Amino acid sequence: MTNRYADEQLAIVPRMMTRTVTRREQARFDKNFDRWMRREWNGSEMRAMVACLGAVSRACGGARGEWGTLTDDEQQAMVRYFGMAYLPTRAEAYDDAEEFLENEIRCNRLSVKEFAQVMVLMFSPPG
Q1: Of 115, 108, 14, which Cα lies nearest the Cα of 56?
Q2: H or E element: which one contains 13?
Q3: Closest to 1 in 3D by CA, of 94, 79, 75
């Protein structure tokens, strides 16, 4: 990961998704995310998510690869998780997406579809 705050984010995001994050962790997450958004994307969440979408979809083989098998909700959940956890830089988004694919999915012996389905569940509102 190229963003120096990404290691911390990667530790916090799963706790957020399981709703076990502390206030202090949430504050660190918010500070890291805001810093990333300002410094890397000039405050534009749309630019950040478009870059994340391009990077993750390419890493997952694009429309004709595993990415093409995902529903819109699954794609959105994957992009959201990648952006939140990895805080990719403009220059290294594609490399970060490859690392994301290897570390989060392949090392856990999951398919992209299986991981995406878990992300959809994790991002679903409680209840």
Answers
A1: 115
A2: helix 6-17
A3: 94
Report which of 49, 45, 25 is spatially closest to residue 37, judged by C-alpha positions. Answer: 45
Query: What mean pLDDT, rounded, does the chain reach?
Result: 90
pTM: 0.88
In degrees, to the nearest 5, what angle opens at C-alpha 48 toward C-alphas 100 and 86?
25
Q: At what angle do helices 72-86 and 112-123 cross, to 10 degrees?
A: 80
Distance, in Å, from the CA atom of 127 to the CA atom of 112, rounded to the nearest integer, reads: 26
Residue among 86, 78, 40 nearest 61 (CA) = 78
For 83-115, how does the pLDDT look when each residue is reduced to its tens digit (9 = 90+)? 999 999 999 999 999 999 998 899 889 999 999
